Amino acid sequence: MTEQYVTLAEVRDLLTAENLDRELLPSQKAAMEHAQKTAAISAENARALMAEVMGIHGVTEYAAVKIADLVPQYSDDVRAIFSKERVTLDAEIINKIIEVVSKYL
Known about the structure:
By secondary structure, the chain is mostly helical. It has helices at 8-21, 26-38, 43-53, 61-70, 75-81, 91-103.
C-alpha cells in the first residue's frame, strides 16, 4: 500500500463519485460535506497549482497540498502554512507562492 497526499478538491470529487455508486458511511459524508464547503478550486487546478509551487525552493509535497487547499493570498497565510516546517521563507519565495496561487483563483 502506498500513501499520497490529496487535496480537498480531490477528496470532494472522489467522494462525490463514490456516492453515486453506493451509500457513503457517515464519516465519509461528513468529509464530503467539509470538502464541498471548503475546496476553493477544482481538482485539476489544485493539481496544477501543486505542481507549480513544488518547483519553488523549499516547498514540499505536504506544503503544496496545504497551499492548494487554503489558497493563501497574504504573506501571513503562507507563513502559517510553513510554521511547522523546518524551512525559512524569505519575502521573495513568499511572493512567488502568492503569485502562483493568484493564477488559480
